[in-house]
Amino acid sequence: MSLDTDDIKAIARLARLKIDEADVPLYANNLSSILDLVEQMNSVNTEGVIPMSHPLDVAQRLRDDVVTENNQREEFQRIAPATRDGLYLVPRVIE
Question: Is the distance from CB of 88 to CB of 82 less than 8 angstroms?
Fold first, then answer.
């Protein structure tokens, strides 16, 4: 995909960026190259490829899911300005 100077100016205006007129052709060339790379990557056949969350086949070391602290809700709510039924009450911010 090839971007021209008008496209770059429109993108800069939408992004609220100030670009020097002399730099517009350079941006057009660079952004066009990026879009060409994306187009090339989209053309790759990924049929049967399982999506990965990480490029390496590693497992996360996880700790046991156990409670490590005491429940202090009553102490914290005792000093709160307003509570009801175990919940903190706050002023309404949306009408």
Answer: yes
Q: What does the alpha-carbon distance between residue 49 and residue 43 come to, in Å, rounded to a whole number? A: 14
Cα 2 from Cα 10, distance rounded (Å): 14
Q: Kind and range of the H or E element at 83? A: strand 83-84
Structure pTM? 0.51
C-beta atoms surrounding 77 within 10 Å: 14
pLDDT tens digits along 49-74:
888 888 888 887 888 999 999 999 99
Count CB-CB contacts under 10 A for residue 9. 15
Cα 75 to the center of its chain, rounded Å: 37
**Ordered domains of the chain (ranges, CATH):** 5-42 (1.10.20)
